[in-house]
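Forwarding these from the shared drive since the link keeps breaking.
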Amino acid sequence: LNRDAEAAEARTLLDSGTAASGHLRIIQVRLTHIDAIQDYKVRPYPGSMVLLRSTAENDKYERLPDYGWGTAVASLQIRDVRGNHLELFDPENAGVLATQLRQALEGKVPARPFQLH
């Protein structure tokens, strides 16, 4: 995440007058999200956690396979789901999401448990 590059892009749009009010709001939200991501500090959690991880490719952000949670929780189970952040609840993806969530709530181990190396 490069907040400086995002801010420069936002300033360019603002200075050029090409950003409509809707675009300005989108830029403001993006910058706020970037600030939150960069400022967030993961604190240790003594319990277990289930991470529902999207299998969708993301070329904007690099992420650790465990999204950085592996060192913060006592027990981490990762379950892959289809679709990106905005598509998780689309009809073609909702069934996989529901199955993974149901199995996690029932305490069933996924077919391929994630292992930290």
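-- next protein --
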Amino acid sequence: LRALMNLVARDVRRAGYDDLSLERVGTGTDGPADLSPHARMQIVGGDSGCVAFSYDRAGNTAGIREDSELRAFRRGTVSGIGVLQMRTGAGTSCDAGDGWDTLSDPNAVDIRRFGVVLSAVNAPIGPGSAPIRVRDLDLALEGNLLNAQDTVRAIQTRIRVRADCVREDLTECDSL
């Protein structure tokens, strides 16, 4: 469980990274064309939670989000056993039906819960600037070995998404 949580936490922490963001700082340009396409995230709560996001992997893409930069993690099932899954590429969202890769072994571990809870604070930056959303995510992973179903283990962590979301309408931060 710890290895899975570390993988998810490290990747989600990168959400919103944009190679061109430093070029926008202090330039006085904060119009819609200057906003990072990577700042948005999709969160689905509950025991079978999901988080979908993107970050600039290619670098210098002139504010364009490429399909290869989309990623998501969720709890799914394989033959009735809970698993942690990851999806990347075109069409990636929490609503995607297929194309998910299983990260946990359904022959050894039953992932009972993957919880994702968003804690966000909205703040104005200053006159004439778009407001900002600062985001923390509480992640919870719970599971058991198939041969020890009465012994359930859980791990939780809180991560700070390093890239804040800047938008005139901050509700746009909550969808891909």
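The chain has a mean pLDDT of 87. The CA atoms of residues 42 and 93 lie 7 Å apart.

- D.
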